[in-house]
Design a protein that fits this description.
Layout lengths: L8 H8 L1 H25 L17 H7 L3 H5 L31 E6 L8 E6 L2 E6 L10 E5 L3 E6 L2 E6 L20 H16 L4 H4 E8 L2 E9 L4 H5 L7 E5 L2 E2 L5 H8 L5 E8 L2 E8 L1
Antiparallel strand pairs: 1-2, 2-3, 4-5, 5-6, 7-8, 8-9, 9-10, 9-11, 11-12
Length: 290
């Protein structure tokens, strides 16, 4: 490595031009300082154009037109339209009076119900028995069961209603005995007022005036046979007759062994009795106010 020497030609050139370089550097520094000073002096006086925000004004009509039409939305029924449930009135079925059928079937038994659609018929065809409900087709025929009465059934045989009598009975027109309204004298009215006052104090007193005895067929409970108690005023006034068989009470099926016990336990809570009785094979509704 060569030792440093002041006699180097490069160093000699640098020394010779020192004055010029110093002047150039000084000029650059002065210009830079002048530019910075100018920015500092003129910056406070500079103004930036800023557009002032103004709210947009719309005509009332334009705003109203842009709003959602809620009335059309409400009427569109997106989830379906509510309809109140329509309850059909309960109509007591009219007994059919149809000509005797020529079908080769035998009516072995008939079970009527206060709800006609739940009535049953036991029909034999070709030595075979089967139980049929309303609107069911009898096996081996084209006939459909239409109605069950206590002594006959009505069948739809190729669009024609016909009667099949219970085995052993001759064909006859159905007979219905409707309850007849009774005119009460003043003494009977007074007695009824006392009876109802007594029952209102103790609901179980109803059984002192309407006696209910179990009615059984071959050990099966068919309901409760009704008879008048210590006086007949209430029994007759509500339209009951001796021999009526109660099958339902306030919706409870009295042919169920436990139904009567349940009704007796709740009797003090009841304000009325809606009784369904079988009379001559036909159901009748009896209303008793407690």
């Amino acid at each position: 490595m060569k030792p440093f020497s002041f006699s180097s030609p490069y160093l000699q050139k640098l020394i010779a031009n020192q004055t010029r370089l110093s002047i150039l550097a000084m000029v650059i520094l002065l210009l830079s300082a002048a530019w910075v000073a100018g920015k500092l002096v003129w910056f406070p006086y500079q103004q930036t154009d800023v557009t002032q925000w103004k709210p947009t004004h719309h005509a009332a009509g334009a705003v109203a037109s842009s709003r959602l039409d809620l009335s059309s939305l409400h009427n569109s029924h997106l989830f379906g339209q509510y309809q109140a449930e329509i309850v059909a009135p309960v109509v007591k079925p009219k007994l059919e009076d149809a000509p005797k059928s020529r079908l080769n079937v035998v009516l072995v038994g008939a079970v009527t119900s206060s709800d006609p659609s739940k009535s049953l018929a036991v029909v034999a065809k070709g030595g075979k028995q089967a139980t049929y409900g309303v609107n069911e087709v009898i096996e081996g025929t084209r006939a459909k069961l239409v109605q069950v009465q206590h002594d006959r059934i009505i069948v739809d045989n190729s669009g024609r209603n016909e009667t099949v009598m219970l085995e052993g009975l001759k064909y006859s027109k159905p007979v219905v005995q409707e309850p007849q309204p009774r005119t009460l004298d003043q003494n009977t009215k007074n007695q009824l007022v006392k009876i109802r006052a007594e029952i209102s104090q103790d609901s179980k007193q109803i059984f002192q005036y309407i006696v209910m005895s179990p009615s059984k067929v071959e050990g099966d409970l068919m309901g409760y046979r009704l008879s008048a108690g210590k006086s007949r005023q209430l029994f007759d006034a509500v339209g009951l007759k001796d021999g009526d068989v109660a099958t339902h009470l306030n919706g409870q099926d009295l042919r169920d062994d436990g139904a009567m016990a349940l009704i007796i336990r709740r009797l003090s809570e009841l304000t009325e009795l809606n009784l369904t009785v079988e009379r001559n094979g036909q159901p009748y509704d009896i209303y008793i106010e407690l």
